[in-house]
Amino acid sequence: MKSYTEYLWFNTPERFQIINITDKVQEIVTKSKIKEGFALVSAMHTSSSVYVSDDESGLKRDFQDFLDVLLPPDPKRYKHQHGADSNGDAHLRSILIHHESIVPVTNGKLDLGPWQQIFYGEFDGRRKIIGE
Amino acid sequence: MKSYTEYLWFNTPERFQIINITDKVQEIVTKSKIKEGFALVSAMHTSSSVYVSDDESGLKRDFQDFLDVLLPPDPKRYKHQHGADSNGDAHLRSILIHHESIVPVTNGKLDLGPWQQIFYGEFDGRRKIIGE
Amino acid sequence: MKSYTEYLWFNTPERFQIINITDKVQEIVTKSKIKEGFALVSAMHTSSSVYVSDDESGLKRDFQDFLDVLLPPDPKRYKHQHGADSNGDAHLRSILIHHESIVPVTNGKLDLGPWQQIFYGEFDGRRKIIGE
After folding, report:
1. Is C8-100+108-131 CATH 2.60.120.460?
2. Is B69 buried (19+), middle (13-18) or exposed (0-12) by CB count in 10 A?
3. How far is CA A79 from CA A44, A76, A101, C59, C122, in A?
4. Has domain A8-131 been given CATH number 2.60.120.460?
5. Which of C52, C61, C66 sits opposite A99 (nearest CB)?
6. What is the DSSP letter of A55?
7. Is A49 helix (H, G, I), strand (E, B) or coil?
8. Which of A61, A70, B119, C29 sits at 20 to 30 Å (Cα–Cα) from A78?
């Protein structure tokens, strides 16, 4: 099996941040020269997720609103301790949305539907983050 | 690496529709002659998901009821704009349930537990949909 | 493609049980002699999930609390029938958290972030369970 691994680093100025990484993943697929297979896009933080959706600004706000209601970013609500405070909301969001996505590669291209884009979602940003 | 890709099309008369695609995926695995590996079943719509669960009619209704409470199908609640109206609920459901599932293949068979079946869930149907 | 499959069995004395299986998965990766690729960790029950998160006791309680609110373990709330009673909550939790996770393998090691661990979550335990 041919395989190729690359690590990506992002800076996230906001605590909640959604980054469209489709072009970066396609570049890596092109560099790998893999024609048929898949790209495993896997976050390396326990407070972030990788998912596939539409790149539309209203939808990103809907996603944030939805998570803010379901898992409010209020440290007092969580038992999880992380240094001085709790970021339990970000960890539970990461479990819920999953740390990884797999995208098929066909003829050297990410085989996405017409509206599908790959997103890195950071739920406890304001620090360097890493994806693979 | 041996790989084989096939695209499936479904017609979904209902807006919310769950389709058991296990047999179709097994047929494709058989056709591929792959003995050891996995099947990546990936939806190509941003309003649909692929997941593994039990094929039981009560459970399908539970799943719909759960999503209807969590993400009500009411366009006014969402900022996402899609043509004339909003289908934000369907997009968020797709993110939540994920667009893809991976199923191990052992000795040419989908290596599922005794109750596991593969489902395509369309959350904004009434049009042609595609899976891979 | 080189591949290697192993089945794991767990006993779960509690109905809701989270098991850190990272070491077991790493052992299997080592045994497989696979250097570059990935590990597909797939639950074979329709009432369980595999996910990646932090191994912290407060977070595990947050996760249980979150699921208990979102999908209360009350058979009367679900239409799903399973033998004498309903375990619809466990099935919906399994769909939501997904039955499988994929972890990259680089140079023979699970390529996890510093806090990432692999968990098997059983939502209807008190019986033998199996993972692959």
Report:
1. yes
2. exposed
3. 22, 8, 28, 6, 21
4. yes
5. C52
6. -
7. strand
8. A61
